[in-house]
Design a protein that fits this description.
10 strands; alpha/beta; Rossmann fold; 10 helices; single chain; 4-stranded antiparallel β-sheet
């Protein structure tokens, strides 16, 4: 049972997800505090990706409840969940490759206002979003690439663009799926700084394998193993938890 629910923006209550006879998520109760950065980690096969997909509603729970900002979203479609402010970015960058960086953000801003296909009719439709789009590009460090095709961006900068398009949807909470996956050290450092910046005034839940990123950013960490939640707490408490050492790392470090 989760206490003081008003302190939490996202809650899972006894969530189960099965694939036939396979139990991928096993009776997990979990909560994310408002205004925090919360990391979800675990070894390969732990069920964290499945659980993340259930929380973001790209998979339905087999049983249990999910509550976002006080509303039960257990059976709500992902698009409606996003309109309520729970917005997910993906491990593989999802941008329009043949549009410019600025156009990508304008489309996201326009889509957030419910007219997803107006931009096909006239370029003038998007011009009203120019100022806000440029503000978002400045936030993510892409001002000097506004007129560059998205396909020409380096991988790390594409991820920054994806963050900008996610922010265009005006989320209350960001779900980040492996935000530093495939990045070199310079891009990782840039992404850490970006997440720290955009997390101001918002809530972030991320799945992340890089533990230096987790330790740098996270207020709270939850660890899954074999579909079960085995530990939650700050980085030091989780790193020293015997179950985490055994199930997640095996080496005595987390």
């Amino acid at each position: 049972m989760i206490d003081n629910a008003s302190n939490f923006i996202l809650e899972a209550h006894n969530v189960v997800r099965r694939f036939g006879a396979f139990l991928a998520v096993d009776d997990v109760s979990f909560a994310v505090k408002r205004g925090s950065v919360h990391a979800l980690i675990g070894p390969n096969g732990a069920g964290k990706t499945t659980f993340f997909n259930v929380l973001s509603k790209f998979l339905q729970p087999s049983s249990g409840r999910i509550v976002f900002d006080g509303e039960d979203i257990s059976r709500t479609e992902p698009s409606l969940v996003a309109r309520r402010g729970l917005v997910r970015s993906f491990q593989i960058s999802a941008v329009f490759q043949t549009m410019t960086v600025l156009e990508n953000v304008k489309v996201a801003l326009q889509s957030a206002r419910g007219n997803s296909f107006d931009f096909w009719e006239s370029g003038k439709i998007l011009n009203r979003y120019d100022q806000r789009a440029r503000e978002l590009l400045e936030l993510v460090g892409l001002t000097d690439r506004a007129d560059v095709l998205a396909s020409q961006l380096a991988y790390g900068r594409k991820r920054s663009l994806e963050i900008a398009t996610t922010l265009a949807l005006e989320p209350k909470m960001l779900l980040l799926d492996e935000p530093t996956a495939g990045m070199g050290t310079e891009d990782i450092d840039r992404m850490i700084a970006l997440i720290r910046q955009v997390a101001k005034g918002k809530t972030v839940l991320m799945v992340e394998h890089n533990l230096s990123v987790v330790s740098s950013l996270s207020d709270q960490i939850s660890v899954l193993a074999r579909g079960k939640l085995i530990a939650s707490g700050d980085y030091n408490s989780v790193a020293n938890d015997p179950l985490v050492k055994k199930a997640y790392m095996g080496s005595g470090h987390a």
